[in-house]
Amino acid sequence: MAIDSSRRTKRSFTNEFKKQMVMLYQNGKKRADIVAEYDLTKSALDKWITQY
């Protein structure tokens, strides 16, 4: 059975990191730029924005 190499391994992020990503977004940085620069998923970033 082949392993799907496109799947990400689950990573944990601190609340401080999440808040920092939300602050970047709130200060005008584009979501796509944050996702690319920090190797995040769009859905994770969207969830954090909603939470904070």
Helix-strand blueprint:
Blueprint (H helix, E strand, L loop, with lengths): L14 H12 L4 H8 L3 H10 L1
How does this structure look, described?
There is one protein chain. This protein is mostly helical and 52 residues long. It has three helices and no strands. It is globular and about 30 Å long.
Which labels suit this protein?
52 residues, mainly alpha, 3 helices, 0% strand
Give the CA-CA distance, first to last residue.
41 Å
Order of helices and strands: HHH
The total count of strands amounts to: 0
Tally of distinct domains: 1
Pairing-aware structural class of the strands and helices? mainly alpha
Q: Radius of gyration in whole Å, from Cα? A: 13 Å
Biggest sheet layout: none
DSSP strand content: under 5%
Contiguous helical run count: 3
- Give the overall pLDDT as a whole number: 90
Poorly predicted regions are none
Bulk shape: globular
What fraction, in percent, of the residue positions are helical? Answer: 55-70%
